[in-house]
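Kindly inspect what follows.
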Amino acid sequence: MSALVLHDDELDEECYRARLFLSLLGLKARIVAVDVVPGGLQDSPSFRAVSPAGLLPVLRIEGQEICGAGAVLLALAHKRGNWLPDDPAAFAQVAHWLHFASGPLRPAIAARRASLFGGGEPDAALQRQGEAALRIMEDHMAHRRLDGGAWFVGDTPSVADIALFPSFALSRDWGVDHAFYPALRRWMRAVRTVPGFVGMSGIPEYA
């Protein structure tokens, strides 16, 4: 694999997805810092030349720039390990949760950004939508535990777990009480045990 370059904001949840997965895969990337708040560098001409839509993270892999967390995770998973299942039914489930992370889970990401960088509490509607998405995840993992499953899909961690993990792990930043999500707490502890796990500011360290 050619040298990897990651355009990254260390406080950004989406960028953490890329950093986490790189670490779990045992891969190193040269980091190019992009100061989003307060710098606004994601809108600079130099960054837009790399990521025309201003999306972070951006990973340079195999001589091309891949923009956005979901695309970065897929590009890395295709190169290394068994993070994408071969079984068609399981692959479809992973695809479902990747879409969930980029769709219904967006309000949770936005609520965190509003709380940390917006100068106040997130909009009530945004908060409700974010919590509703986390509740869907909680219900899924509660059912998975009844079936003996520890991961969102299958018997081993997958790209689905990496795509979903940061939004729950960082949700206390926007006022979510993890005590109301026991299944996700168990799952979060399991993710933390995967070799190569790295955290970031805001992720609890409780066992």
The chain has eight helices and four strands.
